[in-house]
Structures are given as C-alpha cells and as structure tokens.
C-alpha cells in the first residue's frame, strides 16, 4: 500500500513538473512576476486587451479561466447573496476602534474567500464571485451633502487613514506568500461630489489642500497598508482625468509613494475621457492615454480598442505587456494558478459564511457605532414603563440598516424589533406615521402582514408562508430552496446605480438562486384577527400576482425599474382561513417584494402615530434617511435631494411635521436617527430630550439600538463628521477648497462637533504629561493622560489627541486629530492613555513654495479631550528646526 502511495505521489510530482516545464507560469518555485511575464508572453495582442477589462474572458489554450475583477465589500461581502452585513463604513468610523475595524475586515475576507471557492467549485466565474475587492472608499467626506459620504470614514484624513489601513490589513491577510484578497483604495483622489457632475467637473484644489487633506489617507494605505490596488475617479484633477492622470498615477502614486500594485478605473470612467471631458478625440486615444499614464485595468469596455490603438501608434505593445503582467502577478499572488493545498486561504470552509460568531461581531460593531448626541436624563429608558410608542418611517425598514453596497443578511433586526426584544414585557405600539420623503410613491408605507396572521398550512405549527424559490423566472422546475418566511418584505442589493449601461449583477436570496431571472412562490393561509374591510397591498420589482382563495386579485406580471405596488379591498371574516398565494419574479437589476395590509378601521397613518404617542409613556421616533434617497448617482429626485446628494441638511419635511406633532402631545420623545451623513436637527436639539445616531448599523443594528435605549449597553461612538446647523451657509458644493469645511477649517459653531458623543457615565481627565517641552522636526514626543470613570456605569471613552500650531498661518487648520484610543473603564477605574507623536508625520504641512512637506518650527499645543471642542487638558511644546 505504501509503495502504491509513493508511486502515485511520484507520478503526481512528475506531472506537475512536466506541466511547469510546458507552462512555466505554473512553476511555483518561480516568482509571481516572472510567472506572469511568461504567461503574458504567450498571449496575442487581442487576448491581452481582453484581460485588461474587468470581465476578462477565459483563454482555454493557456489554461486561464474567466475572471471578473469586480467585487464590493465596504461593510460585508456585497451582491453575492447571503453575507454578514456590518455597519456601513461611516458607522465603522464612528466606533473610533481600529482593532475592531480590522477584525470586521478579516471576517469579510473569510466570507469572501469561502464564497469564491464555492463559486469556483460550481464552475462560476462571474461578477461578485472573485477575490479582488473594490474597497475601502477613503475619499474625504468634506461636504455633508454628498450622497456617497456614507461609504467613507468621515471628514478627517488621520481617522480615515487609520481606519483604512486596518481595513486593508484585514482584507489582504497576513500570509507572507499569498494575498487573502486584494483591497482597493478608492477613488484617487479629489472626489466627493456632486454626483450629478462627477463625469464632467475639473477639481482644482490648492496644492496645500491636495497634500494636506485629499492625499494622506491614500499615501498611508500604499505605504503602511501595502494595498495592492488603487481605483481612479471619474472627474478631472487639474485638467487630467483622474483615471488617466500622469500627475496622480505616475508621479505621486508610483514615483513618490513607490506603489507596486495595479490601478483600476472607476466603472466607465475611460468613456468620460473622450465623451465628456473631451481630453482626446476617440475611444482608442482614451484607452491608450489611460494605460500609458498608469491605469492597468478598466471597469468597462474601452480597452477593447487597444489593439487598434497599437496599430494607430498611440501606444506600444510593450506598454500593454507591462500592464497585463501587473494584473496577472496580482492574480497569481492570490493563488489562482496554484494548487489549492498550497494556498492557506483556500482551506476556509463555506460554513464560515454568516457564522454565529460573525453575527456576534456585527452586533458588537453596531453597538460601538452608536453615538449619543444628546441626553437630558430620559435615557436609559426605565423598566417601569407600561407602554412605548415607536413611530417613524425607518423604524421597521430593513433598508435603514443597510445603506448601500450590501449583501443579504440572514435575519436582519430592525429598530422596531430591537426595541421590542429589549422592552421585556413593556407594551410596544408601532405606527409608521409618514413616508420617508415628500412626493415619493412609497410602497413601504403599508405595514407588512405579520407572521401571527399567516401559516404555511392548516396543520402547521409554524407562522408565516411557505416559500418556494426557483432558479427560473417563470416558477418552472424544482424549487432550489424551500423555507418558511415569517413576513414578505425583502430587498436585495440593487447593484451600482450608475446608468443603464451597467449589467448590475444583483444579489438574490442566495442558496443557489441566480442573481437575475429567479422567481418565488409563497403559499399558505391568511387568518384575519377581526372582521371587516381590509386593504391588501403587494409591491415588487419586478412582477407579482396575488391570489386569495384561488382568485387572482392583483396582477403586475411585468418588468419594472423600481418597487411598484397596487392594492385591493376585501371583506374578510375574523378567524376564517383564506388560501393565499403570492407569486413573484425578478428579471434583472433591482430586486424586492413585499405584502402588506391595512386592517378595518385603521386611521390615517399620521393620526395613528399621534394617537399612539398620546397613549404611551414615552415615544421613540425613528427617522432620518435610507439608501433609497442618499447614494450614488441616483435617478430619483425628491424635495431636499438631487441625484443621491442632498440639497437640504434637515430631516425631510414629512418627518419634521410628525416630530413636532409628537412633541405637542407632551410625552417625552427620544429620537433615533438613521442615515449616512450629518443631519441638521436643530429643532430636535432644542425640544427633544434625547437623540441617538445609529447610522446604517447593519444586520443587528436594531438589537444594538434597543439595548442602548434601555441601558443594556452604554453608547460610546463618536462623530466622524461635523453636524452643521440648518441655517449654516456651506461653500459651493463643487468648490474643493477646504476653507470653511470640516472641523479643521470651519470657523462657525457646529450643532454637534467632530468627535462628539455622550455616555451614560462620566469620565474625568488628569493633567496632560509630555516627556519633553522641545522636540526636533524629526523627533518623537510622548503624550499621556490619566482617565477615570467617575460615574456609576461601565463605559467606553474615546480619548482624542489634537494638535494646533500656535502661530497659525493662512491655510493652517485650526487643529488636527493626531491620535485616538477607545478605552473601556469600569466605574472608578483609572487608566493612563499614551500617544507617540512623531513630528515628521503629525506636524508636517505642505509647503507650496518648496513643493514638499515640511515641519514648521515654533510653538504647538497638544490638546486631549472627548471631542474636537470638548478639550479637557492641554500642554505646549516647541519644535526646533533641523539642520539642512
């Protein structure tokens, strides 16, 4: 037996050796670079050009499988079916917890690896199935109107860099040979709205703002994070397309920072070079310019013209060889051309996806992301309450948990459900009250039919409907998945909303259901609680049919470009079982379906909400924004919104009216805000005793909010963005000058400052200690302070270190974050928190005359506190100029 095994092993090794000799790119003893070059040398020019597009086809004669480079993972594996959904990036930034962010990214990469290998086993090589992830977004959230600001880590370059580096380390792993995933730092560099103009405008910040604000996070991810990929932007920067900028990509990224990876364009950004920016006259010229200036990979199809560009003399084949070699070096470093047993990451089992430990981490991240903006003693809520009214448009909306770029959570917990779970016997009455925004035909307005009134069959102990999920769009064949769904209220990730050119590869329910062209049949019985006239409503994107007792009562069996609904009024008897069947299909792109009703005698939603408030001991208003109204280049506009950006920083008008009506009842109102950007809630700050910011908190966000409201957890998050007042005049949105923006350059009084966040306990600060009063411009200063939990509850304090230059010059920031630590302290516990302040990094400023960074000599102040305006201790020091 052992001789047989030895013989088999020898034959296998011989086969590997012969394959490596015939195909040197499979020689695992050689470097990835040399292997990639050997493979590229065997390709035709047309094959090389095809490999430089995100949807790279297979080259069967060379053993190269098809591969799509496009994957998303800002806060969980996105658009690839079921996956753990963590708080949106802005919420992760609000944790001010760098180790936690790395742990989250590590978990995302575990699920991504497991999914990829499962896809490969199934023979799938499509979009959202690979190992190259276009995350994180480290653009500076300089203006609260930007709809995509939710994807970032906020307005501060230092915070963004720390979070971004941790995220990259978590995604790419720690193996010395193989990358776990490729992370992508996007979008280099001066890119943060307006969304409607991103294909046209030319950003021209001062060189000081460029180097002190827009570039530092990218530099940190390249130098410290060793990020393997960088994505360009749509807009121009100093007249050059950001995705074909010699200045950004050749001079800064590669020459100055020593970047060794590859650059990918934003999707269809190469089209903009000739079509919108009109920098060059043709597709061929645009493709050649982008490659020559450093963009190796295109998301799009313009690179298909590269062979023609070579023939026209616009670019050489050698330049294309260099680009393709970089791309295949990356794929080989990911282990795509090596035996699976050699790649540590290939052993991650499919069972890790949505593992219980991942759900627990999603809950922890949500808990740490919550920011208590205001509290006049009403929180934590008393356990002696008899009745709570939960009111507002985002209380029971799953979209309020998700933001954008998300996967499908297995069991998302809305804020309403989280409050009910935490209330433990206290009666909770829910009323939506108003739609999210004015003028929106909102199918979410009708309450879902609750599981209590649904059953899969007459003799079933379960509650809900039997769901049969098909791989076809016409309910044909054998169901790929059968399960009981408690309610019919689903929204699957809608993919990129850029334009109709995008094939958006949606995320279906998972479990082998395809991304597009699937269908579902729900069946069972509906048992009404009272007799009378009901209005039953269904809505879907795309089509649906509803049957009651075998009669078709609603029929919208056709494609649609958004969630659309209709209703029917029926007289139903209490306790009688009505046969119910709902059929649904998804064609492509958007995917969602819901089944709701209004019971007999139901009052208008606004009146119902106010009545609920009057009868309650306390009111929890849950409102704000969702990814339906703020996001990326959206085609829908509502009052206060334009193309996904915001034109009004206040709560939408219907929500303001409801909030004021709730306040008029005289009952205490607690406000819970959802959203991905700053909200000007001036009226609430004056009139509402408690305000909690929950962001888009992920799949367990509702649990975290419920726990925080009742004091089971102590909020400790901090604002990564400034909250401005409603009347504050902002600089022009398309002006990229930093003056007047963010806590660093805003001269007015904010509503809530950067770094702000309250607690249910109190923290005292001791004297700030410096190990020296003088340092050189290349020296290090140790800063430390003692923190004490002086309250009666355990809690987290985020100790923030700011530095300001005492002899401020024009263009200087008022102060800059240069360190932070989140520490947990029990009541009465003390801890010394220390920072090492390196002058050449922490105090550098860009000198436009010298065209280089310098550390100005002079007097500085170290400032430690609980926010950018709540400074508890200070100490001055002097920087001495070094010798030339």
Compact summary:
The chain has 884 residues and is an alpha+beta fold. Helix content is 25%, strand content 23%. Helix 3 (45-51) crosses helix 13 (317-333) and helix 6 runs parallel beside helix 8 (216-223).
Q: How would you summarize the topology of this molecule?
A:
Blueprint: H1 2-22, H2 32-40, H3 45-51, E1 55-56, E2 67-68, H4 89-94, H5 98-121, H6 157-172, E3 184-188, E4 202-203, H7 207-214, H8 216-223, E5 229-232, E6 236-237, E7 240-241, H9 246-256, E8 262-264, H10 269-275, H11 283-292, H12 306-311, H13 317-333, H14 356-369, E9 371-375, E10 387-391, H15 399-402, H16 415-423, E11 427-431, E12 454-455, E13 465-470, E14 481-485, E15 489-492, E16 518-526, E17 532-541, E18 543-548, E19 551-556, E20 564-572, E21 578-586, E22 591-598, H17 605-614, E23 618-624, E24 641-642, E25 645-646, H18 653-664, E26 669-674, H19 682-687, E27 690-693, H20 701-709, H21 742-745, E28 763-765, E29 769-770, E30 774-776, E31 780-789, E32 795-805, E33 816-825, E34 830-838, H22 839-842, E35 845-847, E36 852-854, E37 858-865, E38 871-880
Parallel strand pairs: 3-5, 4-6, 5-8, 10-11, 10-23, 23-26, 26-27, 30-38
Antiparallel strand pairs: 1-2, 6-7, 9-27, 12-16, 13-14, 13-16, 15-22, 16-21, 17-20, 17-22, 18-19, 18-21, 24-25, 28-31, 29-31, 31-34, 32-33, 32-37, 35-36, 37-38
What this model shows, in words?
The chain has 884 residues and is an alpha+beta fold. Among the domains are: 31-64 and 191-207 and 224-333, Glycoside hydrolase, family 3, N-terminal domain (TIM Barrel, Alpha-Beta Barrel), CATH 3.20.20.300; 761-880, Immunoglobulin-like (Sandwich), CATH 2.60.40. Helices cover 25% and strands 23% of the residues. The chain contains 22 helices and 38 strands. The strands form ten sheets. Strands 12, 13, 14, 16, 18, 19 and 21 form a seven-stranded antiparallel β-sheet that branches. A six-stranded mixed β-sheet has the order 9-27-26-23-10-11, sandwiched between helices. Strand 18 and strand 19 form a beta hairpin. Helix 10 packs across helix 11. It is globular, with a radius of gyration of 28 Å. This is Beta-D-glucoside glucohydrolase. Keywords: Hydrolase, Signal. Residues 460-613 form the PA14 domain. InterPro entries: BXL (IPR044993), Fn3-like (IPR026891), GH (IPR017853), Glyco_hydro_3_C (IPR002772), Glyco_hydro_3_C_sf (IPR036881), Glyco_hydro_3_N (IPR001764), Glyco_hydro_3_N_sf (IPR036962), Ig-like_fold (IPR013783). One of its GO terms (biological process) is arabinan catabolic process.
């Amino acid at each position: 037996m052992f001789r047989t095994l030895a013989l088999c092993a020898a034959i296998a090794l011989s086969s590997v050796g012969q394959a490596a000799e015939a195909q040197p790119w499979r020689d695992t003893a050689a470097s990835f670079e040399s292997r990639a070059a050997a493979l590229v040398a065997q390709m035709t020019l047309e094959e090389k050009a095809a490999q430089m597009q995100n949807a790279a086809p297979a080259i069967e004669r060379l053993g190269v499988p098809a591969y799509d480079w496009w994957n998303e993972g800002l806060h969980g594996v996105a658009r690839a079916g079921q996956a753990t959904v963590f708080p949106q990036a802005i919420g992760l930034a609000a944790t001010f917890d760098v180790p936690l962010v790395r742990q989250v990214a590590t978990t995302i990469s575990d699920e991504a690896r497991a999914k990829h290998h499962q896809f490969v086993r199934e023979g799938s090589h499509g979009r959202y199935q690979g190992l190259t992830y276009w995350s994180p977004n480290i653009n500076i959230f300089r203006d609260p109107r930007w709809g995509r600001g939710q994807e970032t880590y906020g307005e501060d370059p230092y915070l963004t860099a720390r979070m971004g580096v941790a995220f990259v380390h978590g995604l790419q792993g720690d193996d010395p040979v193989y990358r776990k995933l490729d992370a992508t730092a996007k979008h280099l560099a001066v890119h943060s709205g307006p969304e409607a103009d991103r294909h046209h405008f030319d950003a021209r910040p001062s060189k000081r703002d460029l180097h002190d604000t827009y570039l530092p996070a990218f530099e940190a991810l390249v130098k410290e994070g060793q990020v393997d990929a960088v994505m360009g932007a749509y807009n121009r920067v100093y007249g050059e397309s950001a995705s074909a900028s010699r200045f950004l990509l050749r001079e800064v990224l590669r020459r100055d920072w020593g970047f060794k990876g590859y650059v990918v364009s934003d999707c269809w950004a190469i089209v903009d070079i000739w079509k919108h920016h009109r920098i060059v006259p043709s597709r061929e010229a645009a493709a050649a310019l982008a490659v020559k200036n450093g963009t190796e990979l295109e998301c799009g199809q313009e690179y298909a013209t590269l062979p023609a560009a070579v023939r026209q003399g616009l670019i050489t084949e050698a330049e294309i060889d260099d680009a393709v070699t970089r791309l295949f070096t990356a794929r080989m470093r990911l282990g795509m051309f090596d035996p699976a047993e050699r790649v540590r990451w290939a052993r991650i089992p499919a069972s890790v996806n949505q593992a219980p430990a991942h759900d627990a981490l999603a809950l922890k991240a949500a808990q740490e992301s919550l920011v208590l903006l205001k509290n006049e003693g009403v929180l934590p809520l008393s356990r002696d309450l008899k009745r709570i009214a939960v009111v507002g448009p985002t209380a029971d909306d799953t979209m309020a948990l998700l933001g954008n770029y998300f996967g499908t959570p297995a069991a998302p917990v809305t804020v309403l459900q989280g409050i009910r779970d935490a209330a433990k016997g206290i009666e909770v009455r829910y009323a939506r009250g108003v739609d999210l925004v004015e003028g929106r035909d909102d199918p979410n307005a009708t309450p879902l039919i609750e599981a209590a009134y649904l059953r899969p069959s007459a003799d079933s102990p379960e509650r809900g409907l039997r769901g049969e999920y098909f791989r076809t769009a016409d309910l044909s064949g054998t169901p790929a998945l059968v399960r009981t769904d408690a309610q019919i209220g689903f929204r699957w990730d809608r993919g990129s909303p850029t334009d109709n050119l995008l094939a958006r590869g949606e995320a279906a329910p998972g479990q082998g259901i395809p991304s597009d062209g699937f269908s579902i049949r729900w069946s069972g019985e509906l048992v009404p609680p009272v007799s009378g006239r009901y209005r039953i409503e269904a809505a879907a994107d795309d089509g649906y049919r509803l049957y009651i007792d075998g009669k078709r009562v609603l029929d919208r069996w056709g494609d649609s470009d958004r969630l659309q609904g209709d209703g029917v009024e029926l007289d139903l008897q209490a306790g009688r079982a009505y046969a119910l069947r709902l059929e649904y299909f998804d064609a492509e792109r958007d995917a969602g379906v819901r089944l709701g009703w209004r019971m007999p005698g139901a009052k208008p939603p606004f009146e119902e909400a106010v009545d609920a408030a009057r009868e309650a001991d306390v009111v929890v208003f849950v409102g704000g924004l969702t990814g339906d109204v703020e996001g990326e280049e959206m085609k829908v506009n509502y009052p206060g919104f334009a193309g996904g950006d915001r034109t009004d920083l206040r709560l939408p008008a219907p929500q303001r009216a409801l909030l004021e009506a709730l306040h008029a009842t005289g009952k205490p109102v607690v406000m819970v805000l959802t959203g991905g950007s700053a909200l000007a809630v001036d009226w609430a700050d004056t009139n509402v005793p408690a305000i909690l910011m929950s962001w888009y908190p992920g799949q367990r966000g509702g649990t975290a909010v419920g726990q925080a409201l009742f004091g089971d957890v102590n909020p400790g998050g901090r604002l990564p963005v400034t909250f401005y007042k409603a009347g504050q005049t902002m600089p022009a949105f398309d002006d990229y000058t930093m003056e007047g923006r963010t806590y660093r350059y805003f001269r007015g009084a904010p509503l809530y400052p950067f770094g702000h966040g309250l607690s249910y306990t109190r923290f005292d600060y001791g004297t700030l200690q410096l190990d020296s009063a003088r340092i050189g411009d290349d020296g290090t200063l140790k800063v430390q302070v003692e923190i004490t939990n002086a309250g009666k509850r355990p809690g987290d304090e985020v100790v923030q270190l700011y530095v300001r230059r005492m002899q401020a010059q024009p263009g200087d920031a008022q102060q800059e974050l240069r360190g932070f630590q989140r520490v947990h302290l029990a009541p009465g516990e003390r801890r010394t928190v220390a920072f090492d302040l390196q002058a050449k990094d922490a105090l550098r400023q860009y000198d436009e005359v010298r065209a280089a960074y310098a550390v100005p000599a002079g007097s500085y102040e170290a400032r430690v506190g609980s926010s950018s305006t709540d400074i508890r201790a200070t100490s001055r020091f002097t920087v001495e100029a070094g010798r030339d």
